[in-house]
Design a protein that fits this description.
With about 240 residues, the chain is of the alpha+beta class. About 40% of the residues lie in helices and about 20% in strands. The chain is built from eight helices and eight strands, in the order H-H-E-E-E-H-E-H-E-E-H-E-E-H-H-H. Strands 3-2-1-6-5-4 form a six-stranded antiparallel sheet. It has a two-stranded antiparallel ribbon with strand order 7-8. A hairpin with a 5-residue loop joins strand 2 and strand 3.
Length: about 240
């Protein structure tokens, strides 16, 4: 019967496990994009996704052939796929009662084939899928099926490595803060506080010292961002 997928019995624990990866909203990464590219090539499919099923949406960590960043969970094929440990293959969504009236079938991207391979965490939670989609009805060969299973396992391996790396970084920052050393982001220069939140340096210092801050523009930044003003100042001098 058409409609949104029911929630898994372990939905609360599943969402808690998902949050530990801190993956939602993260920027594209080549290691994940390589996997979706391989999936699309191997299955001769125009669309391939790493889809993460959140509380009320499915968010795409990596995507080939699709522009949108997310769709409602109520429309999600992947929300159905995570209900079982086995891959879900829908050879023609127009003739599947679960999906024939789905907006993703009736409108863009006009799904006909959907092949979703669940992402099983090390604690047996299914947080999303690696999936391929085609606008034409078809099936996967046994070789494509086996390769997709292995690619889905590789996605989970990358997620686990990410979680462990973040855990090590958290511990590193905690130890350094105990020793009076600030942990700062190498890119934006924010500082991590004792609660694990990243804050601008001036905000952190104002919270933990009697210092106050004002703002100006140094000469090099003036030349980079305001070259016309810098040139006028040089003429005055």
């Amino acid at each position: 019967m058409t409609g949104p997928a029911p929630k898994p019995d372990n939905e609360v624990a599943r969402l808690r496990a998902l949050s530990e990866y801190r993956i939602l909203g993260s920027k594209p990464e080549e290691s994940f994009d390589n996997i979706t590219s391989m999936a699309a090539l191997i299955c001769h499919a125009p669309i391939a996704l790493i889809s993460i099923v959140d509380h009320d949406r499915q968010w795409f960590k990596s995507k080939v052939g699709l522009e949108t960043e997310e769709t409602p969970r109520d429309w999600s094929f992947c929300a159905h796929a995570i209900l079982s440990p086995k891959p879900m293959i829908v050879e023609d969504a127009l003739f599947d009662d679960r999906f024939k009236d789905n907006p993703l079938v009736k409108k863009d991207p006009h799904i006909r084939l959907y092949a979703g391979f669940p992402l099983h965490t090390d604690r047996h939670h299914r947080i999303g899928t690696l999936c391929v989609i085609d606008r034409m009805p078809k099936s996967l060969t046994s070789t494509q099926y086996k390769i997709m299973e292995r690619l889905a396992a590789q996605v989970v391996t990358l997620l686990e490595l990410r979680k462990r790396s973040l855990s090590l970084l958290d511990e590193f920052c905690r130890l350094h803060q105990q020793q009076g050393i600030l942990c700062s982001c190498s890119y934006c220069r924010k500082v991590r506080d004792n609660q694990g939140a990243w804050r601008p340096l001036e905000e952190f210092m104002m919270r933990h010292s009697t210092l106050n801050f004002s703002h100006g523009i140094c000469e090099s930044c003036m030349e980079e961002h305001f070259p016309d003003v810098a040139a006028q100042q040089e003429q005055v001098v």
